[in-house]
Design goal:
The complex is a heterodimer of chains A (about 140) and B (about 140). By secondary structure, chain A is mostly helical. Chain A has five helices and no strands. With about 140 residues, chain B is α/β, with parallel strands linked by helices. Chain B is elongated, with a radius of gyration of 20 Å. Classes of the chains: A mainly alpha (about 140), B alpha/beta (about 140).
C-alpha cells in the first residue's frame, strides 16, 4: 500500500471515528443535546427536538459507513453537508454573540471555543472534500 | 453518479431514522406529563403566537440575568414597582402576555394574577412548566 493510500485510509477512519463518537456521546444524553440545539435559536422547539433525536444517529450511521466503506459516496456527501451545517450554525451563534455549549461532542466539551470549533469543522470539511475528490477521480 | 449518491444518502438517512424514531418515542411519549392548569399554555402554542405575544420572566432578577427566553422582559413580584413601567412601554393591547417561571414554583401564576387584576390585562397566560419547557426538560 502506497503512502497516499495509507493517508486516505487514516483520514477516512479518523473522520468516520470522529462522527461516530460525536453521535454516540449525544445519544447518551438526548435531552441535553436538545437543549444545546435549541440554544442556537435557529429552530422552533419541535424542530430542535427532531434534530436532537435524528442528527446523532445520522452521525453514527455515517461514521460507521465511512469506516466500513459501505455506501461510501453517500456517506462522504452526508459528512460534507453535516459539516457545512455545523460550521454555519457555530458561525451564526458566534456572530450573534450567543453564549452556548454547541453540543458537538455532548458533555465531553462543556464550553464552546468558537475559533477552535470552526477550525475543527473546517479541517473535517477539507478532509471530506479531499476524500470526495479522490473518489471522483477513481470513478 | 449523482443518482447513486442521492440513493445512498437516502438509504443512510433511513438507517438513521429507525433508531432515531425509537429514541424520539422514548424521549417524548414516555415522559410523564403534568396536566395543564387553568390559564396555562403549552410552549408550542405560545410560540405559535409569534410577535403577537410578549414574554415575561417572573423569576428573581439574578436568575433572569443568568438565563432567559430571548426577548423576554423581567417582571417579578419583588421588584414589581421598578419594572412595571418598562413592561407597559413594551406591551401593546393587541398582545398576549406569556408569563413563565420554573416548573412547580408560583412566581409565574402570582405575576399573571397581578397583571390581570392590577393592570386589567385580559390575555395573560402562564407557560406550562415554565423555563423547563423551553429548555426541553
Amino acid at each position: 500500500m502506497n503512502p497516499a493510500r495509507i493517508f486516505e485510509l487514516t483520514l477516512r477512519l479518523l473522520l468516520g471515528g470522529l462522527l461516530a463518537y460525536a453521535g454516540i456521546v449525544k445519544v447518551a444524553d438526548i435531552e441535553q443535546f436538545f437543549r444545546d440545539v435549541h440554544a442556537f435559536n435557529l429552530t422552533r422547539w419541535d424542530v430542535s427536538m427532531i434534530l436532537a433525536v435524528f442528527l446523532p444517529w445520522l452521525e453514527i450511521v455515517t461514521g460507521f459507513a465511512l469506516i466500513a466503506r459501505t455506501f461510501y459516496r453517500g456517506a462522504v456527501a452526508l459528512s460534507g453537508v453535516m459539516t457545512v451545517v455545523f460550521i454555519g450554525a457555530i458561525a451564526s451563534a458566534w456572530w450573534r454573540g450567543i453564549d452556548l455549549t454547541c453540543g458537538c461532542f455532548g458533555r465531553a466539551v462543556n464550553q464552546t471555543d468558537f475559533p477552535r470549533h470552526l477550525a475543527l469543522n473546517g479541517a473535517m470539511l477539507a478532509a471530506v472534500v479531499w476524500l470526495a475528490w479522490l473518489e471522483r477521480r477513481r470513478a | 453518479m449523482i443518482g447513486r449518491i442521492v440513493r445512498e444518502v437516502l438509504l443512510l438517512c433511513a438507517l438513521a431514522a429507525a433508531p432515531a424514531a425509537i429514541t424520539g418515542y422514548r424521549e417524548l411519549k414516555l415522559r410523564p406529563q403534568t396536566p395543564l392548569a387553568s390559564g396555562e399554555v403549552m410552549l408550542g402554542d405560545a410560540q405559535a403566537w409569534g410577535d403577537k405575544a410578549i414574554w415575561v420572566d417572573a423569576r428573581p432578577a439574578p436568575k433572569f440575568e443568568r438565563k432567559h427566553i430571548p426577548g423576554a422582559l423581567s417582571l417579578n413580584a419583588e421588584t414589581w414597582d421598578a419594572q412595571v413601567a418598562r413592561f407597559l412601554d413594551a406591551w401593546d393591547p393587541e398582545m398576549r402576555v406569556i408569563v413563565y417561571g420554573e416548573r412547580g414554583d408560583d412566581a409565574a401564576p402570582t405575576v399573571a394574577l397581578r397583571l390581570r387584576e392590577e393592570l386589567k390585562i385580559p390575555e395573560v397566560w402562564v407557560l406550562h412548566d415554565g423555563l423547563d419547557a423551553w429548555e426541553g426538560r
